[in-house]
Amino acid sequence: MDIDAFQSKLNELQSEATRRIRQAESKDEAIKAKNAYLGRDGDIQEMMSIIGELPDEDKPTAGRIANEAKETVKSAYEARLEELEQLQLERQLDEESVDVTLPARTPPARSPHPIAEVESELIDVFTAMGFEVAEGPEIETDFFNFEALNFPEDHPARDMQDTFKTTDDHLLRTHTSPVQIRTMQAYQPPIRIISPGRVYRCDDDLTHSPVFHQIEGLLIDADVTMAQLKGTLRHFAEETFGDETSMRFRPSFFPFTEPSAEVDIGCLFCDGEGCQVCGDTGWLEILGAGMVDPNVLETVGLDPDTYTGFAFGMGIERIVMLKRGIDAIRHFFENDLRFLRQF
Ligand code: DAH
Fold first, then answer.
1. Model-level pTM greater than 0.85?
2. Is there a single domain that holds both residue 71 and residue 131?
3. Which among 175, 194, 228, 310 is the best mutation to test ligand 1's pocket, defined by most ligand atoms within 8 Å of the CB?
4. What's the burial of 290, exposed, middle or buried (CB within 10 Å: 0-12/13-18/19+)?
5. Is residue 105 part of a domain?
6. Can you tell me the mean pLDDT for 72-91?
7. Ligand 1 centre from 257 Cα, in Å?
């Protein structure tokens, strides 16, 4: 082979190599193409071994043009890699691109859950009268849930509240009344609190759910009377159910109040005529209340000769069901949007 033949073979290989590299569609293809010419057994690399066979005077020229060819192929390779990277980036940006002309999605209108809504209405009614909100744990001890509230162990009054026990001594609170005890232990009278929150009972039917909500009230001071309890609850009933609402107290029993009362309002659906909702009585029971039992005051270290007080407790679901005409308690907990969207 002479130098001319060497040069033309080299030119041929060089243009073949750069063409293949430029056509490579991926990094792998580009590497393969480059190695086919510059790799250890590559076609251009092999030309290097031919240089030795050329006449001496041609060897420097042959060496120079062979190196130039290698450089050219190498830079074609590097240029193609850069191009491929750029292409890949553009493709990615294309896929992730945002169409700024698309109309915005309107988020669905939100509204508070009916229980949360009525709970905050009730809080407003009582805080306007000077009550403060107090909260307590949902996992309670037997002491706070029962004993300190004057439910002796094994007393049948405990049967009124079907209880979820977690350990021998712990339970899911069956009512919000334990917050009365916690508050009286922590603060000195005058005390005026309401305590909204979740409570639990092993109970499940049209009007009972294993989890539900109550709001508790407690007022302790010197010379508190039942008349003040009645005035407070009358104001609550008027604010919650309307100015014309009638109300009555019926004697009842709770271990932690003496005397105790069950409080009814005139049926909202039949104006006292008697209907299905009120069971033809004309009255709807809405809460329990009474004067704090002296035993309870003594348990928390308050002198019953100095202090008296009243307490009340009601189920929030019941109030919502009456206010909004809802017929089954389970609707509150099913998260069915067709129900929730009505509020
Ligand atoms: N804790 C009672 C219950 O869940 C409701 C109740 C009745 C609370 C009378 C009171 C009260 O504070 O005085 O059945």
1. no
2. no
3. 175
4. buried
5. no
6. 92
7. 9
